[in-house]
TrEMBL record:
It is found in: Cell membrane. InterPro entries: Poly_Biosynth_Transport (IPR050833), Polysacc_synth (IPR002797). This is Sugar isomerase. The chain crosses the membrane at residues 12-32, 38-60, 80-100, 120-140, 156-173, 179-199, 220-237, 252-271, 300-317, 323-343, 364-386, 392-411, 423-440, 446-470. It comes from Neptunitalea lumnitzerae. It is a multi-pass membrane protein. The lineage of its organism: Bacteria, Pseudomonadati, Bacteroidota, Flavobacteriia, Flavobacteriales. The keyword Transcription does not apply. It comes from the Bacteria. It holds the Pfam family Polysacc_synt.
């Protein structure tokens, strides 16, 4: 437990450190140190690389984690290692050859609306390949139960280097083209460093061949390719499609807006680390009573915590955008739309864990394909009409339909749903607080306004939550850890 706790603690620290560095880069350095056009270009290239990377990776990072421990040290494990490290190369060769032969048509397609993309289209494959093999090496450290260094490389290193490059650009030590090429070099170098770290932890043994259960491993990898591609598509397809329909500058504005809104997803990711194994245990024991209780509590608690974050973002958004170049304020509505979509994600609680850990786990993939297609269709319909706001609206509508479908599915298969009367009371409380504070600002510097207003909002929210006893868990923690509350 000591090793697990220590690694978990360092992983949490590095994750939040990376998030902090990303916030500084995304919200302040990029908008002020680089033109909107080139910021949009970089955001577009990385988004397209993210979409391609899961295909090049061949699902290896998940397959390695799932199957590695099932082998004893010996011939079968060595063949498995060989298969895991060679599969991405086998995927990259035909795709790379196709992109080389078809480079002009591909570059023409990507740069249809923004000609600036044409000169840099090749970058997509290099970054995607670097991302793909980085995940392979990172997975190797995970199966050796040594994830801290990999997590540091994944969350902190590239953001810190980009920060240094942004300051070098601002101080005229490098030009914008050199900046872009150095970003590419950074991803490639990070991959090599991750490989060195992984092989230093334990050098893998290889034997040419395939393991006896290769069909099971291969089928799982194919499933992960599809699932991973869907997950990345849902995160980056809107930025890709914006680059296809509107000026590349809008990708920069949209990128900042999404980064602000994504903060709402943090509580859900943190809770999933705890609730997912508990959900699996309750399902295995067929304990529907406790599962329903956990479903409702997780939904309510996540809704309360993420709802407070939602209010802090929406009620301070005008002040926050005063700290950014004025052009970025055109994406304020996007912040609201994406924040609302992320709030709905939190509202469904452990819904995903219930489906994924049940015999209906493949349904998650079916729903994911449905959502990906729906997202692409809605973006294609709305972006030409409303631009960035259309992309935000498409994401909101897609996630609303997706989450509603999953709620209905779980209710039909398990006879449980996440909502209670306290969900309604919480909604009314947040709506009232939002109405009261929306037009209220202090006449100070934006940062001082945000700090004071946020403090008041949090206090009012907590008083309302405790007074109405909306969450027994929050009330318990309040009485346990706040001395004067006892």
């Amino acid at each position: 437990m000591g090793v697990i706790f220590k690694q978990s603690l360092f992983n949490i620290i590095f994750t939040y450190l990376g998030f902090a560095l990303g916030a500084i880069n995304t919200l302040f350095l990029y908008p002020n140190f680089m033109s909107d056009e080139y910021y949009g270009l970089i955001g577009y290239l990385i988004s397209v690389s993210n979409i391609l990377a899961p295909l090049l990776n061949a699902g290896v990072q998940n397959a390695m984690v799932k199957f590695y421990s099932s082998y004893e040290e010996g011939e079968q494990q060595h063949k498995f290692n060989f298969m895991m490290f060679i599969l991405p190369i086998l995927m990259m060769m035909p795709i790379g050859l196709l992109m080389y032969v078809m480079y002009d048509p591909i570059a023409s397609f990507l740069s249809r609306e923004n000609p600036i993309i044409a000169n840099y289209a090749w970058i997509v494959f290099v970054i995607a390949a670097s991302m793909a093999y980085f995940e392979v090496f990172y997975a190797w450290t995970k199966v050796q139960l040594q994830s801290v260094k990999g997590n540091f490389m994944k969350e902190v290193v590239h953001r810190a280097i980009i920060m240094i490059l942004l300051f070098a650009l601002y101080l005229d030590y490098i030009g914008i083209e050199n900046f872009i090429y150095l970003v590419v070099l950074m991803y490639f170098t990070r991959m090599l460093l991750m490989g060195a770290v992984a092989f230093h932890i334990k050098k893998p043994s290889f034997k040419i061949g395939i393991p006896d259960n290769f069909k099971t491993v291969f089928n799982y990898s194919l499933l992960i390719i599809v699932a991973g591609s869907i997950a990345i598509i849902l995160l980056d397809i809107d930025k890709f499609m914006l680059g296809q329909y509107v000026d590349i500058k809008n990708v920069a504005y949209y990128n900042v807006a999404v980064f602000i809104a994504i903060v709402i997803a943090v509580p859900s990711r943190a809770m999933q680390q705890i609730t997912t194994p508990i959900t699996a245990k309750l399902l295995n024991a067929n304990d529907m009573e406790d599962l329903e209780s956990l479903y409702k509590r997780s939904s309510l608690n996540l809704y309360i915590v993420s709802g407070i974050i939602f209010l802090l973002i929406v009620l301070n958004i005008n002040q926050l955008y005063k700290l950014l170049p004025v052009e970025y304020s055109s994406a304020i509505m996007v912040v609201f739309l994406i924040s609302l979509a992320k709030l709905m994600d939190n509202l469904i609680g452990i819904n995903n864990a219930i489906i994924f850990n049940s015999k209906y786990y493949k349904t998650v993939l079916t729903f994911g394909v449905f959502l990906a297609i729906l997202t692409v269709v809605l973006n294609a319909l709305f972006i030409p009409v409303w631009g960035m706001n259309g992309a935000g609206l498409a994401s909101l509508m897609a996630f609303f339909i997706y989450n509603a479908t999953k709620i209905v599915f779980v209710n039909k298969k398990f006879g449980i749903q996440p909502f209670t009367i306290k969900t309604v009371k919480t909604t009314l409380l947040f709506a009232g607080i939002g109405f009261i504070f929306f037009f209220w600002d202090f006449n100070f510097h934006p940062i001082i306004n945000i700090v004071i207003k946020s403090g008041v909002i949090v206090v009012v929210c907590l008083l309302g939550i405790l007074k109405l006893n909306l969450s027994s868990d929050i009330t318990y923690l309040w009485k346990k850890y706040i001395p004067f509350a006892k």
